[in-house]
Design goal:
This protein is α/β, with parallel strands linked by helices. The protein is built from seven helices and 14 strands. Helix content is 22%, strand content 30%. The protein is globular and about 50 Å long. The N terminus is likely disordered.
Length: 304
Amino acid sequence: MKSLMLILSTVLTVGDASFVDAAEQLKSGAYYITQSWSQETAFKRLYYVSVPERPNQQKFPVFIFLHGHGGNAKKAMDEFMRRHTTMASRYVMVFANGYKTGWNIMSEHSKADDLGFIEAIVKKLSTYDNIQKGNFSVMGNSNGAALVNQLAIESKLPNLRNYVSAVSPLNVYQHDGKNFKAKGADNNYQVVATPMSGKRLMNISGTTDDLVPYHGGTSKYIPAKDGKLGFVDAEESIFLWARRMGYDGEKLSRPSRIDRNLEIFSYLNGDVIHYKVINEGHGAAWAISEEILLEFLGGDSEND
């Protein structure tokens, strides 16, 4: 694997062409998607790519990571790849940069089309010859996880296989108690959405999180249009996802299994799974080992 220094110094000026030569190999570097919205015109949005050096591997699965509010792609890349060296040797690792250090969900400074941004990354990378076109995973932390939830709700891309949301279950706009909702251009969440079936979802939440309450309710700190942002109970949130993905049983009242400070609620043979991290707060994602994450993602088998 190339060092992070080499990866970040290899800047490739790549536009948003509609296609790439089918024989072209994706390489490590910095790439851009150009977008325009109310705050910017023809703005180049950055994402970093790290491709493993495995000459015997012809095609790689792709893992996209979305940082939390106040973060950035470079810092997220440095931290995540340092902690996940095995993943970095098996997956094409992608780190997208949020506009104004955040993702547009409710009342953030950014008004960008972030769902379109991530979908554009997926579409572009899937045109390269060394990519498993049907094996994309996306993971987000906090504000990034909120965008993961919205992608799972709205995206119709078949390429996206796994969704991992860390310390952000569904908020009350994304699911109003009856229906999943599309965000809409003005973040009003008025239109009922039908998430694609056949997707795999993992949520990680900490029981002592003082930013996103584990048992649901209003955040003390995260703004919304009418005050502070409300959240669905974490165990209810994963049950709503399981039901959408085909589960027809009762909501689990007890964990499927316990591993130290992790209480695990597993639906559909682990395809929809929640990790309740006891006595952990908003940093609960770090309680999930690389081995647990790799097991959920399903390794690097071809899935075109």
